[in-house]
Specification:
Helix 1 packs across helix 2. The longest helix has about 35 residues. This protein is about 60% helix and about 0% strand. With about 120 residues, it is mainly α. It starts with 11 loop residues before the first helix and ends with a helix. It has four helices and no strands. The mean pLDDT is about 90.
């Protein structure tokens, strides 16, 4: 069987981590290269790195528009993703509250008949 190099392709998390790390370099005033981000990044710290970048963008508001186009585009995508996530979380909480309210109306016998605790 011939050897394969498919394992060498980076994952989406690795690619995003590389982009986020370059953006963090930019906001820190360090040399950065958005054209050639770290290929594998640091996926283990991606969530923390993203939170750090998000906080910086939120804190710096309109000054972000003086930064690179890559940073501006990342921020717009991130805001859209956050809005969708927050809406999804609100919907899940609402459904959970409705479910809990409905279950509270059931007697122990009705709960048992439905296979609920």
């Amino acid at each position: 069987m011939p050897c394969a190099s498919a394992y060498m392709h980076h994952t989406d998390r690795e690619a995003e981590s590389g982009r986020v790390l370059e953006l963090l370099k930019e906001i820190a005033g360090q040399p950065f290269d958005h054209e050639n981000p770290s290929y594998y990044g640091r996926p283990a710290t991606l969530d923390a790195d993203t939170a750090q970048l998000c906080a910086w963008c939120r804190d710096h508001g309109s000054t972000i528009y003086g930064m690179s186009l890559e940073l501006q585009l990342w921020w717009k995508r991130h805001q859209r993703a956050d809005a969708k996530r927050e809406e999804r979380e609100r919907a899940e909480t609402r459904l959970s509250n409705i479910r809990d309210h409905a279950l509270a109306k059931l007697t122990p016998e009705e709960r048992s008949a439905l296979g609920l605790k």
